[in-house]
Amino acid sequence: MAEGTIKDKVAIVGMGLTRFGELWTKSDADVIIEAAWEAYEDAGIEPNAVDAAFVGTIFTGVTAGCLSEPLKMDLKPVTRVENNCGSGSEAIRMAAMSIASGMYDTVLALGFEKCKDCGFNVLPTTQPDSLHPVYNTRLTGPGAYAMATINYWHKYGIDPIEGKRTLAKIAVKNHHNGSMHPKAHLQRELSMEAVMMSPPIVYPLGLFDCCPTTDGAAAAILTRADIAKNFRDDYVLIKGLGVSVTRINPWNGKCKSDVDATFWTETAVACEQVKAQTGVKDFSKEVQLVELHDCFTITELIAYESLGICNKGEGTEAVNDGRYLLDGQLPVNPDGGLKSFGHPIGASGIRMVYEGYRQIQGRAEKPERQLKNVDMALVQCQGGVPGTFQANVQLIGAADTATKKKK
């Protein structure tokens, strides 16, 4: 197997993001255009400067025409990609690969979704392409992660009340962060009491343990690293791109009882790919910001351990110590994450990169949100449920980290 690397070959020179929320008055074309034009303006280019495009969406667009029509990209190479909740991450990965291959110089990656309009629950009870329909027809997203919560508590001997308090702290943290972001879906602080007393969805998860159903779009302009200075001085480099996918396959004798619902193995594998590409050894010490997939509060807790920013079984202690607060040792989801910012599925992976990009440049939307000395940001986005994950892990960094560290 080839052991290549994309490190420092591709740069991000512009990004755009709509406000996330219940955008009833905006069409899918509206959010696409808004995100794309902000990205064009951020990069200082006209639309015709883009050689190709990749669009990530699940429900809102069926072919690449969902992007080429509103952006008038007639006859240009446009590709629709989909990998569940990681579809936006896949759009960035494909755009970066196409540039690194030498095929294109400048590429648009855009993710979008109009979840409020599509009439489809973003946490479906079935997967039409499933190799294991019996398992999935009885499983919802909240149900799967509720089981993961109980398994995690049992494995590590955590009292359920104390476990719920820990999860509530994650929700409170993310809503605090999201309350300061003008583009977040839920810009409201939550109290511990409100989270603990929220209506049950699937025990032990309550309403405020779950991310909202959201509309929105996010976009990125990528180009060759050697010409990035033609666009801007503070471009951001792609350091590593990891992806890992697995399914519960009935043909290999694996069944749901074999799934470890207390650890996201696919995320851990994607992390190893990124480490091999970049030479990074320990994300907890070498990155200054983490954006991770928190569709549920338990998803974030287990992601800490799967990303290796804390040891297995240490997530509860890390939360209770305030390790991942905005002013903590390693800020996690400083924009509020899926929990507060929202989850328009195809857009989320690019929205996470947007936060890292802006923080690295020192351009957070409000001064109170700006983190100090961000040189590298880690982004993790995963789709599916335990046992059927599609996980993307991406590392981005400042163009000249050595120069930044001297300042």
Report on this model:
By secondary structure, the chain is an alpha/beta fold. The protein has a single domain, classed as Thiolase/Chalcone synthase (Peroxisomal Thiolase, Chain A, domain 1, 3-Layer(aba) Sandwich), CATH 3.40.47.10. Helix content is 35%, strand content 17%. It contains 14 helices and eleven strands. The protein has a nine-stranded mixed beta sheet. A two-stranded antiparallel sheet has the order 5-6. Helix 3 packs across helix 13 and helix 6 crosses helix 10. 56% of the residues are buried. The C terminus is likely disordered.
SSE topology string: EHEHEHEHHHHEEEEHHEHHHHEEH
DSSP helix count? Answer: 14
The major pleated sheet works out as: 9 strands, mixed
What fold name goes in the CATH topology slot? Peroxisomal Thiolase, Chain A, domain 1
| Average pLDDT for all residues | 91
Uncertain segments:
122-137, 250-254, 401-407
CATH class: Alpha Beta
Summarize the amount of helix as a percent range. Answer: 25-40%
List the strand order in the largest sheet: 3-2-4-7-1-8-11-10-9
Beta-strand percentage range: 15-25%
Please indicate the count of domains: 1
Coarse morphology: globular
Structural class: alpha/beta
> Rg from C-alpha positions?
20 Å
Q: Could you give me the name of the CATH homologous superfamily?
A: Thiolase/Chalcone synthase
Could you tell me the number of beta strands? 11
Q: What can be said about this structure in brief?
A:
With 407 residues, the chain is of the alpha/beta class.
